[in-house]
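ok here's PiggyBac transposable element-derived protein domain-containing protein, seq below lol
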Amino acid sequence: MNSVLPKCYSAGMHTVVDEMLSLFRGRCPFKVFMKDKPGKYGILIRMLTDSKSRYVISMEPYAGKNKNAAQQTNSATAVCSNYNVSYIPREKPKRNLLMLSTQHYDDAIGAPSDPKKKTVINLYYNDTKGGVDTVDQMVRKYSTKRATRRWPVSIFYTLVDIAALNGYTTFILNFPDWNKKKPNQRRLYLQELGLKLITPYTEERARNVTGLQKCVISAMEGILKRKIKQTSGAKDVHGGKGRCHLCTRDCRSKIEKYNKVSKKTVVCSMCEDGCEESDV
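and the structure came out like this:
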């Protein structure tokens, strides 16, 4: 996926690397706990995003510590020994924020009238380094995730959500006037995307609806916006009654099976006359 994403988008001037937590509470050898993140438990993914468009350029999941690698000196003490500006916010509790920058070389204040006296580095960071956090919020807003105990499936859901967000970003950049005045623009895009993805498979399945329930066939007709000819599906049998495995598979007991549901005037084309003998 990392080999494809950069080909679809040219990153702007400001990019950001940050961490995103894909929520997961099942068993996973590299599951992490982060008290400051929503959900707290999950799989950590480091990603590079464009801070303006929120396009995800590349991703790398955190798979635990590498025991064979040499110990790196990237601790807070080692990093802070070469800091550029020291800034203490006025909120309580007061903490000393040490900031590094390869673009700024002084401790200039952004706005003299600002009571918090934020530095230029601090203001620049707030304006350009929130890309990953925004991606995290947007992915949680509309997500394909379902309950699962398998961590590869959970990561797959997250990749689908990120791919859909990237698709929305590139689509809006190419067609900026598409549903521009509607507040649910992204939701409409995801609905249209889902229909485009499932329509070919629905067309193929509609050729033979044998064994499908009526609610499923009705949903397929809603997607295709036409009636489906049930040439090989269920059909009416005039005359004698019979038992069908489609009629009795949801029964909770033998009494319900043979007394309430088993005698039907509709059987599937697979069973027809032989359904009574096959179910007994």
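fwiw The beta strands are 15-23, 32-33, 41-50, 56-61, 85-87, 97-99, 235-236, 266-267. kinda neat tbh
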